[in-house]
Amino acid sequence: MGRKYFLVFGLISILCGGQVKTVYVESQALHKTMPAIVVTPDSYGESNERFPVVYLLHGYSGNYQNWADKADLGSASDRYGIILVCPEGGYNSWYLDSPVDSSSQYESWIMNDLLPWIDRNYSTIADKHYRAITGLSMGGQGALYLAIRHPDLFGAAGSMSGGVDLRYSTKRWEIADKLGSFEDYPERWEANSVVGMVDQIQPDSLALFIDCGVNDFFIEVNRTLHRELLERKIPHEYIERPGGHSWAYWTHALDYHLLFFRQAFDRK
Q1: Is the pLDDT of residue 8 over 80?
Q2: Using the 8-state DSSP alphabet, how is residue 195 labeled?
Q3: What pLDDT, in 10s, does the model give residues 178-210?
Q4: Which residues contact 75 (CB under 8 A, 6 or more apart)?
Q5: Is residue 143 part of a domain?
Q6: For residue 193, which of 31, 122, 128, 166 is within the disulfide window of CB 3.0 to 4.6 Å?
Q7: What are the percentages of helix, strand and coil residues in the chain, rounded to 5?
């Protein structure tokens, strides 16, 4: 029996021409209806034009509304001619399918439920070369994690202040609730950390953009990721700028990421 998808429009607003909608999608992976924000440019629907899509992930303890609350996504959607999607990623899911918590299957929610639903219901270019993903903190780890695991679905990925090594703190952010304790399952912590997945990336398979503030507590794990990518000769953009783990940093970084993705789309 085929999947059933449901759409309910909630809050709708116009920001500098772009339209911001809250949608609700039935998730088979999570066994419940999940929210997401979808932002379309002002020109959307005026012709048969199809648009690239950028998925934008929130951080630990956040929710799908964070990016729309903090950044002018309507203006960004217009400026770069893209559809933006902000999924609900849970309080501390880390965007993975938990082997110990059957109710926390967020990789499957995004990849198997949300992504095909967006392509069915919006005028997207349903091709990996026109689909990108990025996010902040937990969402930075999540964006790179999902892109590396699904190279057939993403052509570009980014991370802002990403917690790209889950072993940075084995006692905080409830990661153990999703993977089991580090003492009992160290291999899970390494296998699900982006720094432990670099060998899975084929050169030139992903356009990669990684940035982190020099005052961010995640700066050293991002430097480690940068070195690993260099050693394996995997092309990527890497930026360190003044700033810490804050919305002031992330809202500023967003334009850099979207410009990078727009250029990657245009090259195809």
Answers
A1: no
A2: G
A3: 999 999 999 999 999 999 999 999 888 999 999
A4: 15, 16, 17, 18
A5: yes
A6: 166
A7: 35, 20, 40
